[in-house]
Amino acid sequence: MALFRIFTSIHQVDTTDWQRRLASRYPFLCHAFLAALEDSASIGGDSGWQPMYLLSDELALPCFIKQHSYGEYVFDWSWAEAYERHGLDYYPKLLCAAPFTPATGPRLLSQGKDISAEQLQAALEALAHLCQRHNWSGWHLNFFQPSQQALLQQQDCHVRIGCQFHWRNRDYATFDEFLQTFTSRKRKNVNKERKKVQQQLTLTRLTGDDIRADDIHQFYQCYQLTYLKRYSRGYLNEAFFQQLRTSMAEQLLLVRASENDKPVAYALYLFDDTTLYGRYWGSLDNYDGLHFEACYYQGIEFCIEHQLQRFDPGTQGEHKISRGFEPTLTYSAHWLRQPEFHTAVGNFCEEEAEHVRRYQADAATLLPFRADT
Q1: The CATH classification of domain 170-308, taken from the options 3.40.50.300, 3.40.50.1820, 1.10.3720.10, 3.40.630.30
Q2: What keywords would UniProt list here (predicted)?
Q3: Architecture of domain 5-163+328-364 in CATH?
Q4: How far apart are CA 236 and CA 100, in angstroms?
Q5: Measuring CA to CA, how many Å separate 3 from each of 59, 119, 175, 253, 314?
Q6: Are 240 and 37 in contact (CB under 8 A)?
Q7: pLDDT at residue 232 is higher than 90
Q8: Do residues 40 and 239 touch, judged by C-beta distance below 8 A?
Q9: Average of per-residue pLDDT across 282-308
Q10: DSSP classification of residue 13
Q11: Within 13 Å of residue 58, how many CA atoms lie on the same side as its CB?
């Protein structure tokens, strides 16, 4: 078994070494993003997310000891309940993922090289060994890249699929050119929706040094107020977002909506060389169509202007389909230490996959595109 060193803080890992292993600008596992999570106490402490970064000569794994399943977006609450009914502890468990982020990306960091079956097996054996040693219920690998699906299916784990809605840039020159791929009725609906918002509000896209500390402060007020309206609270605090502004400004897009020069809503995105990720949103009041404008249409325009290939706006939301977001499969892998539960989860994943694939096919029939596009 490959030897993995364990680090309990990203600050214990050299920034250059970590970025070399990540070998991309995928924002949610870059050193600066993880440092902001730790420094703001969004992870660590009593958050239920205890960092455990595993590094070998060839690989790095961003892992977390979890005391709950919040902020993961691969829902396993029913598995935890089954454990409890049998007098067993589901938590702690070991999670390899990007915290609070349902965005597909690298999870087994291999310096940008294709991971071999031997490397993958060594990594999963290390995860299983930690679970056996500490009596954790199992390990989970969330939102891994589709290219690794075949290799993972050859291992002693179960691959689970989900469905999100992503936008793809087919070399559009303008937003209007994108809309030309819609049927007439669907195109008119989008134009009407955008016009209604833009007659009342002014939308501004900010990046880099144009994003000020006060912008982040106002965004955060909107972000938390939106959660409070649903009787909950956002996972992340203002210190986290302010640190992102200073350490990752070149990968931030902040959309601001103003009424009579007064900011009333914000949407915060991150992006890399190929993909825009819609992540955080908040509004002081309800404006018809504003969420679609700030969180979807402004993002699509940004992708077209900057020639980004893909727009991942986050989880769920069938309302995205009629706006040109295509049903896209996501993947996670799971291994449980208890053999009988491991088998039961495997059966569950197989049955669920049939439903998810049917759902994906049904959702694709609702896309707004003309038949000749």
Answers
A1: 3.40.630.30
A2: Transferase
A3: 3-Layer(aba) Sandwich (3.40)
A4: 9
A5: 10, 11, 50, 39, 35
A6: yes
A7: no
A8: yes
A9: 97
A10: S
A11: 13
Contacts of 50 (CB under 8 A, 6+ apart): 8, 43, 44, 64, 65, 66, 67
Q: What is the pLDDT of residues 136-145, one digit of tens each?
A: 999 999 999 9
Domain ranges of the chain: 5-163+328-364, 170-308
Question: Residue with structure tokens 């000569």?
Answer: 57
Decide: pTM greater than 0.90: yes
Which single residue is written with the structure tokens 């890399």?
Answer: 272
- For the beta sheet containing 5-7, the strands, ordered from the edge strand earlier in sequence to the opposite edge, are 5-7, 49-55, 60-66, 93-96, 138-142, 326-336, 158-168, 310-312, 275-283, 262-271, 252-259, 202-207
Q: Two tokens at 12?
A: 């214990």
Which residues on neighbouring strands pair with residue 184, listed in sequence order? none
- Cis status, amide bond into 92, omega within 30 of 0: yes
Residue whose tokens read 């995860």: 127
More confident residue, 233 or 56: 56
The predicted-structure confidence for 7-56, as pLDDT tens digits, reads as follows 999 999 999 999 999 999 999 999 999 999 999 999 999 999 999 999 99
Distance CA 149, CA 120 (A): 11
Residue 373: what pLDDT? 84
SS (H, E, C) 64-124: EEECCCCCCCCCCHHHHHHHHHCCCCCCCEEEECCCCCCCCCCCCECCCCCCCHHHHHHHH
Per CATH, 5-163+328-364 and 170-308 having the same topology is answered yes
Our CA angle for 313, 318, 323, nearest 5°, is: 65
Of the pLDDT bands very low, low, confident and very high (cuts 50, 70, 90), residue 82 is very high
Mean pLDDT (the chain) is 97
Q: Using alpha carbons, select from 72, 63, 126 the residue that is nearest to residue 101.
A: 72
For residues 45-72, average pLDDT: 97
Residue-wise burial string across 62-99, b where 16 or more C-beta atoms lie within 10 A, e elsewhere: bbbbbeebebbbbebeebbebbeeeeeebebbbbbbbb
Closest CA to 342 of 160, 116, 117: 160
Tokens of 143: 């939102």
Q: Which of 334, 340, 346 is nearest to 86 (CA)?
A: 340
Instruction: Name which of 29-33, 192-196, 314-318, 339-343 the model is least confident about.
Output: 314-318
